[in-house]
Amino acid sequence: MTATIHDVARAAGVGIGTVSRVINNSPGVKAATREKVLAAIAQLNYKPDPIARSMVSKRTGAIGVVVPFFTRPFNNEVLRGVEAALARAGRELLLYNVETQEQSRRYFSELPMRRKVDGLLVISLMVEEPFAHGFQQAGLPVVLVDRYSPYFTSLVVDNIEGGYRAVKYLIEKGHRRIGFINGLIEGNFKFNPAYDRLIGLHRAFGEAGLQVDPELMLTSEWNRQDGKRVAFKLLSCRERPTAVFAASDVQAIGVLEVARALNIAIPEELSLIGYDGIEISELLGLTTMQQPMQQMGEWGVEKLIDLIDNPHAPPELIRLQATLVERTTTAAAPRPVEQQAP
After folding, report:
1. Are 119 and 136 a contacting pair, CB within 8 Å?
2. Which of 68, 98, 108, 135 could pair with 131 as two cysteines, CB 3.0-4.6 Å apart?
3. Average pLDDT, stretch 244-257?
């Protein structure tokens, strides 16, 4: 016969409330009493009913994750970190995939009322002020990953610095005609992280006294196929660039394919650098700005669990850096024909 909380209380000589406080690790229980209750739990092999525990503690044991386009490589890598951290913490994952701004607003308005989760991790989405106030009024802890809000703890990568370092690296290798492939805003989310990378490009150009050529600043969707389309335009210019900086690794892979089709040698004739550091970039030898994607997911979960346990903690801004990973797709700029030896 399965032991109940009443059996534990009788065996320990205490009330049911005391057993509940011990199970939930609540303060205010004397050490000797706690030891008696724990001994009774072990002796009777008592296993608390998780549903009953959640009703008492008002906790569900689940963390909600709201993410746009979760199959995209960047978000997929962040989610790997999220899953690893939740597994270590013994928490369940409730995933909410978002593809439009309207869908995210619906989730942000409904989730505080549903309370199916103990906290919410929001990846790569802005939380507008009215929804931020709604979360705060409902007492639902929220942590942002890859976005910033003054209302919530936020983990962000310094994309301006990342773009600056990528382009400065190319300039230091002698490149002067540098193309940039930006990313389109998708799903009417009104935010594009590549714009910060473009700001970094302008900063590096300004420091080097270089002029930005609008013909070399193109935009594609965040995928390999559209990266190929734009790369063909870029590499078919009358005076094509000697280097290309792509706002993501998947777009950079499109450039690699077009260069191969046009018989443009990489890195001898064209240097290429991506952004993100997804797994396939290593397999292809792609130089990239590595974002700490899995760590962002893990740290986001850890911060959220801390916030669930300490709901009055003030919001933090945690600024992370992308790291330059030099591989085989970048080299010194080719010398102009007139400077080459006969």
Report:
1. no
2. 108
3. 97
